[in-house]
Amino acid sequence: MTLTGQSLIAGQWLGNSDNGEFKAFSPAHNVPLETNFFNISVNELELSINEAENAFLAYRKTTFEQRALFLDCIAEQIIVLGDELLTLTQQETNLPLARLQGERMRTVNQLKAFAQVLRESPDSPMGLKVIDEADNSRQPLPKPRTELNYLPLGPVAVFGASNFPYAFSTLGGDTAAALAAGCPVIVKNHDAHPGTGELMARAALAAIKICAMPLGVFAMVQSKSYNISHVLVAAPAIKAVGFTGSLSVANALKATMVKRYEAIPFYAELGSINPQIILPNKAREQGARIAQTLCQSMLMGNGQFCTSPGLWLVPTGCKGFEEEVADWIGNSLSDTLLTPSIIKSFKYATSQRSNMDQVSLLAKGKLEHDFHANAHVFACSVDTYLATLALHDEVFGPAALIVRYENEQQLLLIIDKLEGQLTASLHGTQDDLDSAQCLTEMLQYKVGRLITNQMPTGVEVCGSMNHGGPFPSSTNVRSTSVGTHAMLRFLRPICYQS
Ligand code: NAP
Questions:
Q1: Is residue 264 domain-shared with residue 347, that is, in the same domain?
Q2: I want to staple 53 with a disulfide (CB 3.0 to 4.6 A). Which of 116, 216, 237, 312 is the partner?
Q3: pLDDT per residue over 226-256, tens digit each?
Q4: Does pTM surpass 0.85?
Q5: Ligand 1 atom 7 nearest Cα
Q6: Is the dihedral of CA 251, 252, 254, 255 positive or negative?
Q7: In a domain, 302, yes or no
Q8: CB of 425 sitting under 6 A from ligand 1
Q9: How far, in Å, CA of 285 to CA of 281, rounded?
Q10: Residue 27: inside a domain
Q11: Are 188 and 265 found together in one domain?
Q12: What is the domain count for the chain?
């Protein structure tokens, strides 16, 4: 399939070299790929926004069944893209084929899950309608009939992440949730996988045509220029923003959004260090095994998960734990990261930690190529951790920090100082967990998902999932970006009184 390098706007492929162009990058070979992708102009962006506004008038009137058919059709059209999609994404990301196959299925199932939710409750999203009947005999005043239901917000801007080229990207969770809610979507495609974005947009366009949806219901814009992202989130017609990525880019977009006349919701799902707390009995009984599982979880996808375990709280003298970590990490092979800028940030952060006096480098993996990232595990004391704010930041890639604690009091001090997290895990025997109630109580106020005796990597897509958490793991603590409840982010309540 030949790529055009263009953007999908109002059902047409637009863009040329007038506004500059960029290439995708091959992490495996450390060279740019061939295709030129064209930065769209501000005029073209404005066209996509106007078309989304027009499309909203028709799309919001579609029945839930029509939207469900549309979502199912997008899912089918992703499958129709076939192996070419996988091959191209692999070139752009160097993520393993099996991982991409799994993520493609997850993305397809995510779309179908929203379709199913729409079908299960055809006259109110997720059956949330509430009716209070009238009571004319009520004294001193009659009670009116009131009905609470939900309306779509309007056009939504979506920014995907580099590390999930399908599930958190062009036709990922935010897009599926917004379309299910009845909102047109404009995706600013991630420039780490522009070809993947183009193929996904083809799937969306095919589904729009098959289902006779308004052409402006979905647009995908390509640009390496930051300005396009800022013009998009500032546009008055945009009524919500879904973003997956780093805190620094989220802050930059937020700075633009605060200048808007109309404040709109900004659902940014960000990074996290996902603390892993090993309780004393578990550490004593299974220290080496936990060490091994933590290393495997951290090395998964070369650490490129927002749920990667980055902070390991381990009791001092935990037999075999650090030896096992040193062994696993020391024998691990380096691998690529998604983009040169992610590699650069990883190398900067790990060299900073390596140069800290109170922090030791417990183990590092073998570096096969300079443009690879090798695993790093550092260690420090509780006092150092508490005194060094830089150690609280996410290092995106294969890195983790062990903090050696002496007693529960110290654990409580650390938990108290933790910033908001997507997840945290408690690893303990039943005795450990029974005596850790105070800790659990504190910890739940810091996280979006509290896990017992399991690793944080792997996010189940289901109705009971919460993927989000207190700031800075996300900018909206009251919502999830994974699972069917994600649709609620793009709806607003309305009360009909009669
Ligand atoms: P990112 O660092 O946020 O970058 C996103 C895009 O924004 C890049 O194209 C970047 O371009 C661009 N950008 C940089 N500065 C900008 C500015 N001032 N204004 C507008 N755009 C700007 O994201 P990423 O590299 O895709 O993702 C890695 C992060 O996402 C990690 O922190 C990870 O934990 C998080 N993540 C979170 C979740 C979740 O569900 N919570 C899921 C996946 C990933 P350049 O590359 O040119 O800088």
A1: no
A2: 237
A3: 999 999 999 999 999 999 999 999 999 999 9
A4: yes
A5: 249
A6: positive
A7: yes
A8: no
A9: 6
A10: yes
A11: yes
A12: 2
